[in-house]
Request: fold
Amino acid sequence: MSEASPIIYIVDDDPAVRDGIAFLVSSVGYRHRLCASAQELMHALDDSLPSCLVLDVRLPGLSGLELQRELAERKSAARIVFISGHGDIPKAVRAIQLGAVDFLEKPFDDQMLLDRIGDALAASAEELRRRASRASLERRLSGLTERERDVLRLLIAGKTSKVIASALDISVKTVENHRHNIMTKAGVASVAQLIAWATEADGAAPG
Reply:
């Protein structure tokens, strides 16, 4: 396993539970870190890697649900699978509403936990990929002129070159030249690709 491999953070104040889950995830090749508290997790978390928190609801100090809210405020890409020996419907509902992958009651089925961990890691990796795509697009589009930004906004809105020319009081040929320059700077081969990329990046294009 490389240092860039996905990582599982096992956050539980019961050493036996931590060790048991560690053995399980190690058996299928996952890297892992053991944490006895939310505070310990906050110091250990590497948010640049796809990661899953196998997180107990009841922890000393900051609870699992409070940690989930803290990570959401930090816009962490880590995804959470909750485990609990004291689970109840309201806690499970809150956890899922806040973005948890699942809420499993102890004792849980090992394969179910591994499946949910796989789902969490896939979601975390996709979030990191989306953020990287957005950052790349923003870097490329940062070199646009003000007029090119005006044209791009209208392109993303689905306007034709003729409509853009009328809106900006320029010629259709000038619009086409701006469009060519935008695509060159963005590194895309078509307007459709540019729009799809900008949409995927949640509006990274200048607004």
